[in-house]
Amino acid sequence: MLITEKTNEQLTPMKSPHNQNIAENKPIKKTIRVQLDADILEWLKSTGRCWQVRMNAILREAMLQSV
Q1: Alpha helix positions (H), 1-67
Q2: How far apart are CA 44 and CA 38, in angstroms?
Q3: Domain extents in the chain
Q4: What SS3 class is residue 47?
Q5: When comparing pLDDT for 25 and 57, which is higher?
Q6: Most exposed of 16, 24, 33, 57 (fewest Cβ within 10 Å)?
Q7: Quick one: which of 57, 27, 34, 55 has its CA closest to 43?
Q8: Tens-place pLDDT, residues 32-47
Q9: Is 55 exposed, middle or buried (0-12, 13-18, 19+ CB in 10 A)?
Q10: Nearest to 54 by CA among 23, 31, 62, 38
Q11: Residue 24: Cβ within 10 Å count
């Protein structure tokens, strides 16, 4: 296996999304534990990959509508 040096441009896509959030002024993600009704979790997971991202978007929309 050959190990080569990488330039900053090549490493940029590999950086942690948590670090990019700060640099791009996006909300910082927090890891939490939450209990959901089984049918809600089943529905979210049935929407495919990245269901956690969709759950965050649903919660954000509800938050913005309540303001």
Answers
A1: 8-11, 17-23, 38-46, 51-65
A2: 10
A3: 34-67
A4: coil
A5: 57
A6: 33
A7: 55
A8: 999 999 999 999 999 9
A9: middle
A10: 62
A11: 8
